[in-house]
Amino acid sequence: MQFIDLPTQYQTYQSAIDAAMNAVMQHGRFIMGPEIAECESELATFAGTKHCITVSSGTHSLEIALRALGIGPGDEVITVPFTWISSSEVILLVGARPVFIDIDASTFNMDLSQLEAAITPNTKAILPVCLFGQLPDFERLNAIANKHGIPVLEDAAQSFGATQNGKRSGSMSTIGSTSFFPAKPLGCYGDGGALFTDDDELAVAMKAIRTHGGTERHRHTLVGTNGRFDTLQAAVILAKLPYFQDEVDARGRIGARYSDLLRDVCKVPEVAYGNTHVYAQYTVRLPNRDGLAAKLKEAGIPTAVYYPKCLHEQPVFAHLEHQLGDFPESERASREVLSLPMHPFLSEADQDHIIAAVKAS
Fold this sequence. Notes:
By secondary structure, the protein is of the alpha/beta class. It is built from twelve helices and eleven strands. The strands form four sheets. It has a four-stranded mixed sheet with strand order 1-9-8-5, sandwiched between helices. A three-stranded parallel sheet has the order 3-2-4, covered by helices on one side. Strands 6-7 form a two-stranded antiparallel ribbon.
């Protein structure tokens, strides 16, 4: 059994993917080929934003966005400690300081009741993480940010395809960032990511920073980096994108079925009002997480833990001088979460087998 079934996905769309990649091999423009602009146009249309800038990874997209916002030494960026390290390592990379606030226990997203108290004169951005596939309350979040004149950078690496009150993830704030890592809801066959914005000036800046700080060859106006998306990977995204909404719908159905049938034996994901959920990971909570994982492994069922330690427990953030107990909901989640197999091609029979094994454990 696959935890994320990429082989079946490839076999399903093989003719379209092979044709798209072969076209790149034929024209030979492997860096910034015509598929890049086409991919950016299609993704912007899908997300509902004016601009899309594709980049080399989801991590790089966050760093480029922070640099475009002018964030650097002495600045603070508010985010959460229960997430993958990318969300905060990029803050350190630009010389700023991560300021953590706890998560909401029901959604795993930023606890917005703690947000305003964390804002200081040094706060230059808010970086919410749409963990596991759904969005925090952006109406409330943006209202707080706007009150204080602070931009919001949405980390939509796990939520691309999800919606809130009809608007798509990536379009909810000043800048949206996503990842095309193969295991993500919309993945390529390597690393990749994208940035979304309606702000013309930010779009120009992010495009320049992606390409060594310039939009014209041999003219560098900003300190940039090599953050370009490979043309072959853009071709893969273009081939997959026509099927993506069907996959999003399938994820929603499979996730809802899991929840209906597991609600009596463990804490299942809650979908907030107005949200859809893409279940990048279908994640349950239970006190004996490790025991269940071991029994499922014996039954041939793969599982994963996202994430066994919070960021304030990682040595690289020791200088922030946090202690265990500072973020109780994040710490509790890290000890209780377990992700079950989830992908759009999960059969009902396989799902029944998983559910039965969870209930028997």
